[in-house]
């Protein structure tokens, strides 16, 4: 089991994250999120786009990236995450709909995807509560019957619900 985990963990690398925030009304709002994201020790660079209320984030080499901390910094600045997209570099990772897969240090629950192999740079969207609007979270609940969708956990491990 340990050998399988490490072989799967080596099959993907986070390239960057794009977060779209909701509730921004001015450049000062954008600046507060920018400053908050820059305080995370694994963040190397943040590029803000005021027109789209989005932030492109790159990471320090070999950093342990925490998606919940990124979301938390947006919320700490007084805003909400409307869209959270991660660009991964995959190396022949087999995915199936409504299945859990170890990706790096995370468990991903793929929803609304076709069975296949992910190779190269691919964008995935996080669908967990707080990573999308409340309306979209509720709509996506029809994509699975697994309890982890509501809790974000399975056997005390964090599960990220994602789609391509």
Number of helical regions: 5
CATH class: Alpha Beta
From the spread of the alpha carbons, the general shape counts as: globular
SSE succession: HEHEEHEEEEHHEE
Proportion of residues in helical segments? 25-40%
Q: Per CATH, which architecture?
A: 2-Layer Sandwich
Radius of gyration: 16 Å
Which fold name is given in CATH as the topology?
A: Alpha-Beta Plaits
Uncertain runs are: 1-11
Describe this entry's structure for a reader:
There is one protein chain. The protein is α+β, with helices and mostly antiparallel strands and 164 residues long. The chain has helices spanning 2-9, 27-38, 67-76, 134-140, 148-151; strands at residues 12-22, 43-49, 54-59, 80-95, 99-103, 106-110, 116-126, 153-154, 157-163. The protein has one domain: Alpha-Beta Plaits, CATH 3.30.70.100. Helix content is 25%, strand content 43%. Strands 1, 2, 3, 4, 5, 6, 7, 8 and 9 form a 9-stranded mixed sheet that branches.
Strand and helix layout:
Blueprint: H1 2-9, E1 12-22, H2 27-38, E2 43-49, E3 54-59, H3 67-76, E4 80-95, E5 99-103, E6 106-110, E7 116-126, H4 134-140, H5 148-151, E8 153-154, E9 157-163
Parallel strand pairs: 6-9
Antiparallel strand pairs: 1-3, 1-4, 2-3, 4-7, 5-6, 7-9, 8-9
